[in-house]
Amino acid sequence: MYAALGIHRCMPHSHGSQGCCSYHRSHLTRHHKEPAMATTSSFTEGASVFGGLSNMTQALKNIFSIYEPDIVAVHTTCLSEVIGDDIPMMIKKSQEDGTIPPGKHVIHTNTPSFTGSHVTGFANMVRSTLRYLAENTGTPRDQLNILPGYVDPADMREIKRLAGLMGVNAVVLPDTSNVLDTAQTGTYEMYPKGGATVDQIRSTGDSIATLALGHFASLPAATELENKCNVPSVPLDLPFGLGPTDAFIDALRQYGAADVPEQIEEERGRLVDLMGDLHQYFFEKRVAVCGDPDHVIALVQFLVELDMKPAYVFTGTPGQHFERRIAEILKDHAPNAIIKQNADMFELHQLMKREPVDLLIGNTYGKYIARAENVPLVRFGFPILDRAGHRCFPAAGYMGAMRLVEKMSDALLDKKDRECDEEWFELVQ
Amino acid sequence: MSTPDTQSPRPEAAEVRAEMLKAYPAKTRKKREKQILLNDPVAPPEIAANSRTIPGILTQRGCTYAGCRGVVIGPIHDILHITHGPIGCGFYSWLSRRNLVKPRNPGDTNYLQYCMSTDMQEDQIIFGGEKKLRAAIQEAYDIFKPKAISIYSTCPVGLIGDDVHAVAREMKEKLGINIFAFSCEGYKGVSQSAGHHIANNGVFKHMVGLDDTPTPHLYSINVLGEYNIGGDAWEIDALLRKCGIHVVATLSGDVTYDEICRCHTANLNVVMCHRSINYMAEMMETKFGIPWIKVNFIGAESSAKSLRKIAQYFDSQALKDRVEEVIAQEMAAIREEQERVKARCKGKLAALFVGGSRAHHYQDLFSDIGMETVSAGYEFAHRDDYEGRAVLPTIKIDADSRNIEELTIEADPTRFQPRKSEEEKAKLAADGFSFKDYDGMMRQMGKGSLVIDDISHHELEKLIELYKPDIVCSGIKDKFVVEKMGVPCKQLHSYDYAGPYAAFTGAANFYKEIDRMVNTKLWKLVTPPWKKNPQLDARLGVAPKKERAVLEEPKSFKRNAAAPSAESGE
To answer: Cβ A77–B155 below 8 Å, yes or no?
Structure first.
């Protein structure tokens, strides 16, 4: 659903019972504090027995006549997967009988909850979008595709800003900036100006290359496009922290045939300067990290650059690549770190009880562990349900990294200031 | 945002209705026509409530699982809740309703902090998930040693045919604790409401009546259908305690397993949310002889009325006197705030679309401060919640309602004990007291107000456009849509993480909150000053845009733009 919202004038559609759609919309809204629109096939027992074809047909008819999107992106649910609804057949039928008006599009992807995690669903939707829409016309275009991964609108905005500063033409898919972080104007727009347009997505087949930010969220789509349209896929990490942002900028430089402008170098320089200024507070601090795999892979590299000691590195998403990659990053620096994919925060909590850490980095759900163990929590990733910063400021790029540095040092020093003995309570740090 | 002096005359409800229906395809319009009605409080028209939502409509509704796991049973904080299914349902129902709880003894664990799920994978979908469920129950038991474990089925569980009840029975025997399951698959009903019914059945079957320890209090009651959002149940409890009325159990706000097991020892059931819990009230009356009455502790006037009603039921002059004393005290304490806010909010318009009782109850709070409800509707209520319980015999049972088991309850052979004799009941009735009395929302709303069941996004947008209400009450999915339109929106599911709003203290909180929301300057800041007065920059001597391009000395233009007041200073 999140990925589909990053397509311009797109209505995400949940093919299943109402609850799935309601839960997803509520959760996205709690994280972004913005309307998250999506329709549902509203299955009841009848549809579960006889199949969801008539629900889908009726839904498409209503959606196109009432809400008038350019494109509907269908995602499945456990319910429609288990009963074996054939979505491509349904789309084909709706095209033939005119339920889908001419010039409008319906695409789909498979997202049952019993396979993978929300990151899997996101990756599937990006991949399916390209599978349905990307075209290789044979005339190359001077543009790069950037698949930003499951990051916040502010991050996508920052990624576009950096590409813009480099003078690179980029198609960003999905792009939820100006969709899930719109300005207050007094007018509600169901389809705000943001999002990758159908034409832009179509043109990705003619691009020079695809920068796939994140192995889990973006690489499957980039590989699909490479196979379909022969656009080379460039696997990168999410541009969080110094090293991964460097890699992103360097890829823009190489594939976009662009020079790195002074402004970006200055931003980078200010980040390195800040890291030096605060290094003493980070050095050898034990950190527990949990979150989505692409986020954590990038973040752990940054923690290493700051000379912190990642002690527990967890993700709930399944995938061996995560453990291999983190072990590789930590092999010289923190070889004893406990690294787990498809893991549970309960286990993380037990480990933290046994051998404590100085800092926990994770999403909002980490606050229960943080409180129980009196460990400062830096909120990072998805979802953040109880703080506002992620809605306004990116975590991506050098600027985002500076913000992360600030948040981590604030968290460590605030705890010290709150708890240290009187004689160690100092004015200057 | 409308202000009294700029407000255009209020449109006719019939026109608003027609405007809402215009965009719909014929079939959709035909269905929605029966759910958007002009109110007549004397003879409420029949509303097609509790019917299927049309696919493709942006609805507020959730599913059966949400109603069962999320609403009714979810708040019991000292039992383990295991969602049997793929991870999504367990995850999304993890602390996402704001049922606050306070463990009774230091060191007690609040299990609601944990999300327990069997995390079914493709393998279990194909080969069955009972084995994994058994293992999950064992693991959860080994770690937490709870008093009871409750299991919830999600969509795929029903489809693949896992027998969750058999697993529950087997593990109950093995572990020696109470374990029970709910077949509350998401697709079972047209909304959360089906889940409420399934939950009521299960709580009644597996918990109520397990502990016969009598309550020592004469004026003992259960508060049914109160979920302690934002601490409401605590406010109600404190108020009742002040009057000398003892709450055995609140179903199910901040309630423990033991409290539910002995709630059948109370002498009266008072019902807050009729929709979600009337089943329980009925079953307890049949089996144990506990009568029930409808109350409403939302709003100062309604709280006073509810207290008086409870005192009248117990028929004790001492209690009646005490209740009057408390009402006088509480009213005096909030009067100043109420008057202050009323002066600022009087005549403003509200619209409420939420839940199965809140869209009705909260109208009382708005009327406390002189605000009018122009339009309201429920998300998942039935006809009786709109038109009153008088219509119950005429409600047709459709295929979707037939899905939900109706328990056949008989009087308990040893424990049935009518709390009031027929003569006492007759005497109360003669004094104007009524049992099982819910007249519904429509009888209380003004003539010609617009009643909308299961409102869709499109209708909400039209409503705001045409009525220009000063505030809308709804839920998280609508909140930011409404606010993007420049109208404040109060969430009545989560209270926007504020509250409590129940009883008298809560009412004062609500008045203050509504005053904050409808009278804030914020909405006036939306338009930047230069859009309000387009001539402004010409007067300051900056050349209009067209001419800027031909200015020969951009420097001077820059100076002017950066310091528009420089001209007068030079």
So the answer is: yes
- A250-258: long-range contacts, CB 8 A cutoff, minimum separation 24: A251/A211, A252/A144, A252/A162, A252/A163, A252/A166, A252/A168, A252/A211, A253/A166, A255/A144, A255/A208, A255/A209, A255/A211, A256/A144, A256/A163, A256/A166, A256/A167, A256/A168, A256/A169, A256/A208, A258/A166, A258/A167, A258/A168
Domain residue limits at A418:
263-423
Say if CB B51 and CB B502 are below 8 A apart.
Answer: no
Q: Which of A244, A261, A278 is the last residue of a domain?
A: A261
Mutual angle of helices B13-22 and B457-467, in 10-degree steps: 140
Name the CATH superfamily, with its identifier, for domain B64-188.
Answer: Nitrogenase molybdenum iron protein domain (3.40.50.1980)
In Å, how far from its chain's centre is CA A101?
Answer: 32
pLDDT in tens, A234-286: 999 999 999 999 999 999 999 999 999 999 999 999 999 999 999 999 999 99
Cα atoms in the 13 Å half-sphere on the side-chain side of A231: 36
Cβ contact, residue pair B92, A24, below 8 Å: yes
Are A252 and A155 members of one domain? yes
Chain A, nearest residue to B527 by Cα? A185
In the set A82, A272, A392, A420, the catalytic residue is A82
Burial A135-160 (b: 16+ CB within 10 A, else e): ebeeeeeebbbbbbbbbbbbbbbbbb
Distance from CA of B355 to the nearest CA of A (A): 14
Q: How far is it between the farthest Cα atoms of chain B?
A: 102
Cβ-Cβ pairs closer than 8 A, A with B, add up to 191
CATH number at residue A180: 3.40.50.1980
Query: Quick one: which of B224, B230, B278 has its CA closest to B248?
Result: B224
Which chain A residues are Cβ-neighbours of B27 within 8 angstroms? 58
Q: How far is B525 from chain A (nearest CA, A)?
A: 10
Residue range B220-340+391-430, CATH number:
3.40.50.1980
Could you tell me which chain B residue has the CA closest to the CA of A67? B458
φ, ψ of residue A53 in degrees (nearest 5): -60, -45
CA distance A18 to chain B (A): 5
**Known catalytic residue: A198?**
no
Please report where in the chains the tokens 């019993």 appear, as a residue. Answer: A114
3-state secondary structure B491-512: ECCCHHHCCCCEHHHHHHHHHH
Q: How far apart, in Å, are the Cα atoms of B75 and each of A89, B125, B227, B253? A: 43, 29, 7, 6
Residues B292 and B224: beta-carbon distance below 8 Å: yes
pTM: 0.94
Q: What is the pLDDT of residues B102-158, one digit of tens each?
A: 999 998 889 999 999 999 999 999 999 999 999 999 999 999 999 999 999 999 999
Contacts of B481 in chain A (CB under 8 A): 35, 188
